[in-house]
Amino acid sequence: xxxxxxxxxxxxxxxxxxxxxxxxxxxxxxxxxxxxxxxxxxxxxxxxxxxxxxxxxxxxxxxxxxxxxxxxxxxxxxxxxxxxxxxxxxxxxxxxxxxxxxxxxxxxxxxxxxxxxxxxxxxxxxxxxxxxxxxxxxxxxxxxxxxxxxxxxxxxxxxxxxxxxxxxxxxxxxxxxxxxxxxxxxxxxxxxxxxxxxxxxxxxxxxxxxxxxxxxxxxxxxxxxxxxxxxxxxxxxxxxxxxxxxxxxxxxxxxxxxxxxxxxxxxxxxxxxxxxxxxxxxxxxxxxxxxxxxxxxxxxxxxxxxxxxxxxxxxxxxxxxxxxxxxxxxxxxxxxxxxxxxxxxxxxxxxxxxxxxxxxxxxxxxxxxxxxxxxxxxxxxxxxxxxxxxxxxxxxxxxxxxxxxxxxxxxxxxxxxxxxxx
Length: 422
Description:
Blueprint: E1 2-5, E2 12-14, E3 33-35, H1 38-42, H2 56-73, H3 76-108, E4 141-144, E5 148-151, E6 157-159, E7 162-165, E8 173-177, E9 183-185, E10 190-193, E11 197-205, E12 208-216, E13 244-247, E14 253-255, E15 267-270, E16 276-279, E17 282-285, E18 289-297, E19 300-308, E20 344-347, E21 355-358, E22 363-369, E23 380-383, E24 389-392, E25 395-398, E26 402-410, E27 413-421
Parallel strand pairs: 5-12, 13-19, 21-27
Antiparallel strand pairs: 1-2, 1-3, 4-7, 6-10, 8-11, 9-10, 11-12, 14-17, 15-18, 16-17, 18-19, 20-22, 22-25, 23-26, 24-25, 26-27
């Protein structure tokens, strides 16, 4: 079997192979062949030549072969053979450069895992940081922008602003109301008026505390409810505001009832309409004498004595005759009396006042007037029992239950008024 000698690396290989098994060079058409030898058989069919094509021995052999080939072919084939060798060498060089460049990129570029000596072989997961509790920042100071709030209508609102130090405190600010029926407060400090009264809004931050006073100055609207008249009765006691009235002039009148029950729902009657008549709680003097008027409601009946003392006698100044008390007894004095002159007592609103009924703690003002109704001055006032009533400058004040006589003295003449305190 013939062998082919590679022109590049000098390796001999069987002529049945199209390229060199060592360097991969394609066998040229005019490749030099040599006879097979035992040595090549021992090496698998080809012979390794140390140093390849560029050893001195191979150079000499190749030069001799080239000269022989050139001599046989006239020299042109040698040039073509050299050109092919140059191209092959360039291709090999490019391939070597590419391989070296790739290796350099993998080894020396920044960030490459092979070159990054700081990158651990077994990196930890990305989220491996240990969660720690935030630092606690206690509140050192707590102040409010205002410490007093006044709300003038229901649902009116006011925002309480706080100032804490340090501003990054971790303590929570808490708002509480002392009376939520007066005012409520939200978690952010909004105060809302609920009802009339006073409340205290307490603000805490850690161990610091501040207070804001809230005053609601309004009245809640009352809800009007319609209640059937025949089934619901007022809870108040049915009483008249007077138990004994004395009139000194015809036509004088008095409204006996001042409660919440409508006077039209009360049944009113007079014991003697020739003396006094009554309509819807208003009693009016008609003629001289004494009688009783009555009011009846829901089965309860109350009464008031009416004394009508008219036309005082010019000679004596006596106004009418004695009257009858509610208990049936005869009064000590039927009206204003005097030892002379034409004067009489009247109350502050101009009604004749000779017999007046009061309640403990109440009072009224007496005045002495002449025949024309003009008040006179220089009157001296006395009372028969100052423990029951007191009098000062004509003002009579009831102290305790009982009956007294208040006397006015003018120019040596006396004028009296019975005062009954119940």
